[in-house]
Structures are given as C-alpha cells and as structure tokens.
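The methods section describes the discrete structure representation at length, but only in general terms. The central task, working out the structure tokens from the amino acid sequence alone, is never made concrete. Nothing conveys this as quickly as seeing an actual entry. For illustration, here is how one protein appears when written out as sequence plus structure tokens:
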Amino acid sequence: MAMKGILTAILLSICLLSPAQEKFKEGYIVNNRHEKIPCLIRNSGDEESTQYFEYRLMGSKTTQRIELSTVEEFGIEGEFKCIRALISIDMSPDRIKSIKDTVPQWEKGHAFLHVLFEGELASLYSYNDHGTPLFFFSLEDSDIVPLVYKRYQVETSPNIIQQILYNNMFRDQLDFHLACNGKKSTDRIGYSKKQLVRYFEEFHKCRNSSYTLYRSAQTRKGILLLKPGIGVGSMALDIQNTIDAAPKIRFDKESSIGFGIGAEYIFPFNRYKWAFFAEANYLTYKTGNITVGNEKNPPMYSGYAVDYRSVELPVGINYYMNLDRNNRLFVKAAFVPYIIRSGSHIDFSDSYREEFSASSHTMFGIGYNYRSLGMEFDYYTPTNVTQNIYKRSSNLVRIALKASYAFQLFSDRGKR
C-alpha cells in the first residue's frame, strides 16, 4: 500500500505540474486579414511540433489553440517563426517490393512550417508532424517546394529486408539552385536540420547576402552532469520463516547517512526534459533490536542482529518539469542492482550467523532542483536479501532523502 501511495503521488505531480511548466512568452500571430497581433505564446507539447502552440491575447486570461484555419503566421521574435503554407508531401510507402515502387506519390495540403533560415536568396523550412522531419525550401519569392529525400526498404518477403535504397534528390536540388561559384559540395551532406542550415548559411556567406537564422534552427547538445550527493536513509528488515508457523520478526527501522556519486545525461530534445542517469551509492543498516508480534526483544530471540552494508547501482530515467531557468521539479524511476559488501551478516543467535544475498529492486523518486543544487525523496521497493538462507524470506525496505550538487561537464544550453 505504501508503494501504491507513493506512485499515485508521483503521477499526480506529473499531471498537475506538466501543463504549467512552460511559460507564455511575448510573441505575435498574423490572422487571415494579415493583421499582426501581439500576444503571449507557449508550446505545451513537443518542441519540434507545431500542433501544440497556444496563445493569449494581451490582457486576457483565455488560452486559445493556434489553429491552421485562423492563423497564417505566428512566432517569437528572434526565437522562432512558423508560417502557414501549401506544401507537397510524398505519401508513397517506404517498404517496397522492387525499385519500380520508388515513384513518389505527392499530396498537397496546408500546414504550419518552422522557418529555420530566412535568407535574401533562399529560405529553409521544416515540418515535423509527418512522423519523420521533412525539409522544404524557397528561392526569393518563389513557392515553397520539398527537398526530396526518402529511405526505402526493399522486402523480398514480409518483414525480410533485402536492400536499403535512398532517394537523395535534395542534393541535386541544392547543387542546381544553391551552388556558389559553380562548386558542388553536397555529395556528403545529410538530410538533417544541422547540415542543411549550415549549407544555406555558407551559401549566403559565399554570395555576401543577408539572412536571419532563428534560434529554433540551432542544433543543441545534451548536458552531461557529475552529481556527488549525501543522503539520510531509513531502512527496516522483516524476516519470515517460510515453512514453520513461526511469527514474523521485525528488525527496527534505523536511520543512517549514505553517500554516492552519479552521472546524468540530459537529452537536448523536448526542452531538456528527459535524462538518463547512473549512480553508485554506499549505505549501511545495523541494529540488534527486534519486534516479534507485540513483544520487543523477547529473550527467546536473543542474539538476533543485522549488519548490512551495500553499494547500490541505480540506472534509470529522469523527467524534468521546468518551472523557469533556475527551478525544476523532476520525477525519476530506476532499476537498482546492488552489491553486498563483505562482512555484512545477519545473526539468528550468538552462534548462528548467515550472509546476505544480493538481488535487485526498483526505485521511484520525486525532487526539486535550484540551479545546481538538488533535493529528492526516493522510495525503494522491498527486496529479499535472504534468498540464500534455508526457510528464510525477507523484505528489506528503504526510503531516502538525498541532497546533491551537479557539476556540468559540457553543454550549450546557455546559448538558448
């Protein structure tokens, strides 16, 4: 029941805090009458998608979704710009039976495009709501056309891939329309935002032409953190004889100070909300006090004692909720194998001693970060540390309150 309550609290925290974690910023929309209207804008979903943008008119508390039918352009000055455009998308399947099936099947429709690069001679756009990123370009005042690329899987029979084919026509398009001084430099260019933006930028520099590069076009790196920490934990152990009708033995809950170190990599997508972490934490648990039924330290059980020392190795994920640049809430979950340190033991009398056996369990946590300082509460599911002892089953339960400090090893987040 305790675990269910903690999990419920974590899930409620996500549900209640996630919608509010991204703040509205000053921006604008352009309506169908070509009127530019100042407003507050936020993206409540995927950073690359245009489906989740919302806005509030100045002085209003009403939040409205930015709809394709009513808005022809929106953005935040210098940060990003999205325009409504009529585009063509290749709807042909990417799993085919022969090379004859690589003929594109174009379908037209209106969509919001991210303006990545706006140049005097050419502009670059992206569309991310098709499943895979698609890129488009225009020349001066010409129509917006796709940069043609597709990866095909040739199947000899269902789910058996014989060959991978690529349609890299976008390289020919760039060579034909955006070659500087007749030089061809697209042989190795990839169909990615980073490489295409760089190509458009180099082309305009070569031609001494002006351009605007929006912040949303910049490719971000992840963040690698080194996080030493110290925590106060509480542990308790129950022992049960699995065959005889003996009462459960409860070793007293004890507090101890533990320490550890971890590494965390925060992924750059979706506003740095997801992270992978690995830790190594040293902890101890020692007590000679037990409760059997309602009796404290009964004489019949004299000599029972626990001396437990281990190094746990959590590996898991963090999900951050960014309140602002300095304040973040997070929830975490991890798989936790551990190593029992030599010398750890459990005494069942003055003359009967056994060692513990290592296993694994899971951990769930919730916490708060202020800049590099972190505080978190972690709950560990019960684990059986006496599997090696005949007729003895156990539940070792642990909770911990931990403080940490993050040393940033590399990042470009400050450039955002």
Observations:
- Residues 78-216 form one domain.
